Amino acid sequence: MSLDDRKLEVLRAIVEDYVETQEPVGSKSLVERHQLGVSPATVRNDMAVLEEEGYIRQPHTSAGRVPTDAGYRLFVDRLSKVKALSPAERRAIERFLIGAVDLDDVVHRTVRLLAQLTRQVAVVQYPSLARSSVRHLELVPISTTRLMLVMIADTGRVEQRLVELPSPVPPDDVTDLRRRVNEKLAGQKLADTPPLVQGLVDDCSPDSRATMACLASVLLETLVERSEERLALAGTANLTRGGVLDFQGTLRPVLEALEEEVILLKLIGDLEPSTTRVRIGDENQIDNLRSASVVSTGYGPGATIVGGLGVLGPTRMDYPGTIATVRAVARYVGDLLAQN
Amino acid sequence: MSLDDRKLEVLRAIVEDYVETQEPVGSKSLVERHQLGVSPATVRNDMAVLEEEGYIRQPHTSAGRVPTDAGYRLFVDRLSKVKALSPAERRAIERFLIGAVDLDDVVHRTVRLLAQLTRQVAVVQYPSLARSSVRHLELVPISTTRLMLVMIADTGRVEQRLVELPSPVPPDDVTDLRRRVNEKLAGQKLADTPPLVQGLVDDCSPDSRATMACLASVLLETLVERSEERLALAGTANLTRGGVLDFQGTLRPVLEALEEEVILLKLIGDLEPSTTRVRIGDENQIDNLRSASVVSTGYGPGATIVGGLGVLGPTRMDYPGTIATVRAVARYVGDLLAQN
DNA sequence: ACTGGCACTCTGTCGTTACGAGTGCCAGAG
DNA sequence: CTCTGGCACTCGTAACGACAGAGTGCCAGT
After folding, report:
1. Of A60, B144, B179, B299, which residue has the fewest beta carbons closer than 10 angstroms?
2. Per-residue pLDDT reduced to its tens digit, B69-101
3. Does any strand D atom come closer than 7 Å to the Cβ of A48?
């Protein structure tokens, strides 16, 4: 049994009404609020079919219908078109993002903007190191046996690590180290560096070899192994909108999930397709987020993607609006990064 | 009318029971659970006095008593001694903090540790720039008209900013700039730098003056004006412990406050006295945190203080335990920083 | 294929009642 | 003067039943 156009129209109406009112929607109020051109009884028949197919359900006998995850999914895929942003929103985005002075600033402004526009929890991933190149490596002597290694990536990210040296190294040798390291690594993709770092050690004269080996291990750790992804988060207070009705009673599991960077990265950091991705309820494989949806997308200068951003909210969410906003913000941020 | 010893003992018992059970405590259960050596009726009389003095109150007629903010205050100031940490806790702290590789790592581990031990929301301020000295300034050419300025502070903090130059500058001149800037500023307290930066511009030859002025303005901004304090936060999920009973119904205002860095800094960043500070309910002047208490202290290598840390929870909180934990963690972190 | 009508089911609300915890007060004992 | 036991009172809460309202499913009719 396939769903004819009117049944789909009914589903759309249910989703829209439910998102707006947060209350199960019945056949009568449906025909009142939408021009469906049929009677409540007909709508009821359609609803019975939709329920059988798993797109809607009744919380109790004799309450209205509520969309299921599958219902939202169908709505998102086939029934909604992306809303255009209002001029006010466009202006808000621009106003918010101009004037950012460095990467931290860009990320923080973006995440706050996103939370504010969507009125949901926003997450922004810093440009991924895995997709960056080395712009410059700096070695700063802290003491004779300690260096601070500073890595500046082309995306603007800066990572630093302390290096404990096996033996004292005079300043001139540090200069030499710095030159050698940069000659070899500057401009390279981080992912390509491991063999090059090994090469650095191999090419070393025996007397400076121990030092370089030590530096190399920290380099590898910084550039690759522990190439830690960073995140910014904002708008957690938005979880409390709509009472505790969303999220089935407690915010607890959601708040817990939001504290796990690993989880968040899984949600927004999966950057394969460059299109906007929507994960509804169970679709994001995380128990704690059964009643949450995530809208995410990649961003980056031009067509390349260097990181992900997105928002998290109740499954009962304004998908068209949220999708539009997430996309728009991602594009603006990409443009901003392209200017550097 | 002053409070005799037994009345104080009654207050202590009320606070302890209420913190544990989260329910208003009556005269009968009080004498059952504590060896007060008097009858419920006597306790009732004492409670009437305590209520008149504003230390406890009844949610409704014929419910037990609940401590007021003033009651908690008295309890903290005069009735409780700091609990000793269990060996297990000590071990947890050590295990958690060894192995931290850089400042970011230290701060993140600390904030998570604190949240876990106290089972509350933890806040850690990064070492304040205002109390740091410049260890090194690095200038990295991005293009001929762009430099990246990287400032490394003695506390391990690293700040970076982009500098747009008025005219192209060749690499050799950058080396020269770097030397001049470091000669003047390295080792100086950030707070003392403004006149020195001005001096740098004044001492400049006319042809490089424009460049230096430009650099100087960014320097000033980075070092002083926008010497932004950074924070780490963890354990927000702990707010949901004890149901929504704490925080009078909604977490909303609390979550909102936690998003405002300015507010958090006011709470934990006020470092005048080096002792642990407890702010109960109204005492922290923030409307949104009427029903929250904050326990905070400063930390730093040795006796100096470079930043603040603390926890936030319901006024109904285990003060002695929390205070002990916050102090212990602060001391461990200080020791850790002293090793650098 | 759609519609109007009707019986049914369930939830939420409202008043009533009964109960229990806890109090304040008072008179009496040490 | 302080403490205690007793007693009447208050008030929130749980339990109960009745009721109204929303919404449904089904069926016969157009």
Report:
1. A60
2. 999 999 999 998 888 899 999 999 988 888 887
3. yes
Q: Which nucleotides of chain D does any protein CB come within 7 A of? A: 3-6, 9-12, 21-27
Q: What number is the average pLDDT over the span B124-131? A: 90
Residues A323, A232: Cα–Cα separation, whole Å: 19
Portion of chain B with pLDDT greater than 70, in percent: 96
Distance CA A268, CA A287 (A): 17
Query: Tokens in use for A336?
Result: 């901003």
Q: What angle do CA B306, B310, B314 make, to 5 degrees?
A: 160
Contact B240 A258 (CB under 8 A): no
Residue numbers in A near B226 (CB within 8 A): 101
Q: What is the pLDDT of residues B41-80, one digit of tens each?
A: 999 999 999 999 999 999 988 889 999 999 999 999 999 8
Asked if pLDDT for residue B1 goes beyond 50, the answer is: no
Residues B46 and B60: their CA atoms lie apart, in Å, by 18
Helix (H) or strand (E) holding A122: strand A121-125
Tokens 């400063």 appear where? B298
Q: Taking CB atoms and an 8 Å limit, are B240 and A252 in contact across chains? A: yes
Question: Cα angle vertex B319, ends B59, B86, to 5°?
Answer: 140
Portion of chain A with pLDDT greater than 70, in percent? 96
- Name the closest residue (CA) to the C1' of nucleotide C5: A41
Select from A83, A81, A74 the least CA-distant residue to A8.
Answer: A74
Q: The whole model's pTM is what?
A: 0.90
Q: Is A152 touching B (CB cutoff 8 A)?
A: yes
pLDDT single digits (tens) A327-339: 999 999 999 888 7
What are residue B26's phi and psi, to 5 degrees?
Answer: -100, 170
Tell me if chain B has a CB within 8 Å of the CB of A259. Answer: yes
What phi-psi label fits residue B282: left (phi over 0), alpha (psi between -120 and 50 degrees) or beta? Answer: alpha
pLDDT at residue A1, as a whole number: 47
CB contact under 8 A, B259 and A250: no
Chain A residue numbers with beta carbons less than 8 Å from the beta carbon of B259 are 234-237
